[in-house]
Amino acid sequence: GDSVTQMEGPVTLSEEAFLTINCTYTATGYPSLFWYVQYPGEGLQLLLKATKADDKGSNKGFEATYRKETTSFHLEKGSVQVSDSAVYFCARTYGGSQGNLIFGKGTKLSVKP
Amino acid sequence: DTAVSQTPKYLVTQMGNDKSIKCEQNLGHDTMYWYKQDSKKFLKIMFSYNNKELIINETVPNRFSPKSPDKAHLNLHINSLELGDSAVYFCASSQDLYGGGSSSYEQYFGPGTRLTVT
Questions:
Q1: pLDDT band at A95 (very low <50, low <70, confident <90, very high)
Q2: Spatial separation of the C-alpha atoms in residues B117 and B100, rounded to whole Å
Q3: Phi and psi dihedrals of A28, rounded to 5?
Q4: Does residue A11 belong to the interface with chain B, where contact is any CB pair within 8 Å?
Q5: Any bridge partners for residue A67, and if so which?
Q6: Which residues from chain A sit within 8 angstroms of residue B108, using beta carbons?
Q7: What is the tens place of the pLDDT at every residue in A49-91?
Q8: Each residue of B78-109: pLDDT tens digit?
Q9: pLDDT, position A104
Q10: Does B97 contact A103 at a Cβ distance shorter than 8 Å?
Q11: B72: exposed, middle or buried (Cβ count in 10 Å: 0-12, 13-18, 19+)
Q12: Looking at chain A from residue 61 to 100, which residues have their Cβ under 8 Å from any Cβ of chain B?
């Protein structure tokens, strides 16, 4: 069935380090892909999205490119900040609608000053 | 103004009790959802409602029942609570379920309700 797999955390980085969080999805249908972020004690917020192959989503210095050939949607940021510490979730649509989402298991990022 | 709100934020109760969690969205969205997040942060959809009709009912126990008095509210009622029900429950909403715009399917999440069953 449809699923999303993302790298297990936790990921610990120093401030200004380069971040990559890997995400792959099952190649069924033509899903839209998302990254959501959950800051401590809060609900999830949409970070960025891509709706078709080769689209690049970007927001707050984060980027992810929809790669159909590798079924991937890796999250990257060139220089992380302490305020980026959060749990990051990769997600895809399923079931023929855009509103139904399957989430990956989340990757906790901790950025040290 | 809070877009998606949930009450209560924390809920501690004993096994066997019945409890409800309320959710309200002021975004004018047509679709609302309930998710369960376990202790390992794994997020799983439980229900979604579109125009007051249940359109997803994932494999959750029938002790859980969503109730939508109107488009802006989707409450979650839980009967005979069990230890395994302890989790954070998130409500979310989206403009609609079938797209139609560049952001019409973005989901907006509430702050969560941490349920602890003792």
A1: low
A2: 41
A3: -110, 130
A4: no
A5: A72
A6: 46
A7: 998 899 999 999 999 999 999 999 999 999 999 999 999 999 9
A8: 999 999 999 999 999 988 666 554 445 678 99
A9: 93
A10: no
A11: middle
A12: 87, 89, 93, 97-100
At a CB cut-off of 8 Å and minimum separation 6, what does B66 contact?
B34, B46, B47, B49, B54, B74, B75, B76, B77
pLDDT of residue B105: 67
Quick one: tokens of B41?
């942060």
**Are the CB atoms for B34 and B89 separated by under 8 Å?**
yes
Q: How far is A113 from chain B (nearest CA, A)?
A: 25
Measured between beta carbons, which residues in chain B are less than 8 angstroms from residue A89?
A: 43
- B106: part of which helix (H) or strand (E)? none
- Which DSSP letter does residue A104 get? -
Continuous H helices in chain B: none
Strands A107-112 and A11-14: parallel
All residues of chain A having their beta carbon less than 8 Å from the beta carbon of residue B104 are 98
Shortest alpha-carbon distance between residue B71 and chain A (Å): 16
Pick from B42, B44, B34, B37: nearest CA to B4 = B34
Structure confidence at residue B77 as a pLDDT band (50, 70, 90): very high
